[in-house]
Amino acid sequence: MEEEKLKEKSLKLSIKEGSATALMSGAGESYIIPYALALNASNFQIGFMTSFVGLFSALSQIFGSKLVYKHKRKKIIIPAVFFQATSWILIVLLTLLTIKGYVSVYAPLILVILYSLYGISGGVGGPAWFSLMGDLVHEKKRGDYFSKRNKIVGFITMIVTLISAIFLDYTKELGFVLFGFIILFLIAAIGRYISAFLLSRHYEPNSKIEKESYFGFVQFIKNAPKNNFGKFVIYVGLINLATNFAGPFFAVYMLKDLHYSYLWFILVNLSGTLFTIIAMPFWGKIGDKYGNRRLLQIGGVIITFSPILWIVSGNPIYLIFSGQLLSGIGWAAFNLGASNFIYDAVTPQRRAICVAYFTLINGLGVFIGASLGGIFAQFVQIGSINTLLIIFLLSGLMRGIISLIFLPKIKEVRKDYQPILDINLLSFASFLTPRPFFSIFRGIRNTIIFASLKKENKTN
Fold it and tell me: Residue 28 in 3-state DSSP?
């Protein structure tokens, strides 16, 4: 009983910790690409910054997962979070040196290095945090708890990001935008330092992780196509590749091509976050009842169309209620389903190493996708068509093809779920789909549904 009280207290602390992290996300992460553009970074450099951060963050998780077998998880998490906060201080120093004119030419390259250190710090602590939270949250309450936590964290992130945009526009009008970034990144650092303090107060249940549960990455890769979790990891990794082929360039498109103010840029971005917050509790209940694979199904279909809608118009109101609406709702389902699927599919003893390999595959997807997108954006030109719009179209097509191929192969691992999902639940997504894309959506939806049901009938 005493342990249950300690767990409950830690779960409340985790929401506060996530809220502190939201300061970092809202004032820091949300503005790293606008900051890179302010340093005159090229599309190629922005693509590679995203790719390197994704790769190094993933590689560092392998190291972090091995630490779990040797040390208490909090002893890994707290220093990692502390150094992640410190990386924002280093970026502030870079900005000061740039203002002084000492490193202006090399500033984008130095930013890539410093932001990679930020990703590495977060990666080292990732497996330990994931393992710890898996022991704190009861299996049957994961969907509800994480949807609640994500909702609160997302709302705070949204508010901080919006205030930061207004502040940046003000500093830009005064001609001191780099000083504006300094203030934001200091706030990001403070938020993460607070996060480290709150994590230090978490209760860590006794969880003996045996070294025998460790297995190598080569062994994981060999077995991945043969087992359910491996197929899931490959699927999510490929979705990340397709997503990050376009991901870094939505900000570039809005700020450089459409000449949005920072406020409009953030309003468009935040709309996706808002729709995610609204949808998260609904998807949490669906995941707890029908299984997390269903969330992957629904989200995988919806996110196919979100980047494609960007090619229709650059009007911010249109983008908010089309591409961003689908993006927010779709990614809420997909991300919640993916994170909870890992908890369900992996034993506590292997959770840290499996999360590390999952993140490594995702990092490789980010690295390859963003690198290819950066090369495409920099060197490919088809007539007078904006290259970034072609990238958005290709990203959506890749997402759809990947979902068509892999989703029917992934099985639900939970035993206490409702096995047959009402077709109307997936049809909910068709209501969101604009009429010109409806026939395409219906084909993808039906293919995934019937292939999946056929797969279930074979296994039952």
Answer: coil
In this structure, what token pair is assigned to residue 60? 């560092």
Quote the number of domains for the chain.
1
Type of residue found at 128: A
User: Domain for residue 3, yes or no?
Assistant: no
Instruction: Read off the pLDDT of residues 291-304 as tens digits, 9 standing for 90 and up.
Output: 888 899 899 989 99
Tell me the CATH number at 76: 1.20.1250.20
Distance CA 269, CA 290 (A): 30
What are the structure tokens assigned to 269, written together?
């971005």
**Residues 138, 449: Cα–Cα separation, whole Å:** 30
Q: Which pair of structure tokens corresponds to residue 52? A: 């390197």
The CA distance from 313 to 159, in Å, is 26
Per residue in 23-78, pLDDT (tens digit) is 999 999 999 999 999 999 988 888 888 888 888 888 898 888 888 888 889 999 99
Domain of 38? 9-203+215-454
- Residues of the chain with pLDDT below 70 are 1, 207-214, 416-460
**Is residue 1 assigned to a domain?**
no
Instruction: Give the length of the chain.
Output: 460
User: Which tokens go with 127?
Assistant: 């497996």
Q: Coil, helix or strand for 196?
A: helix
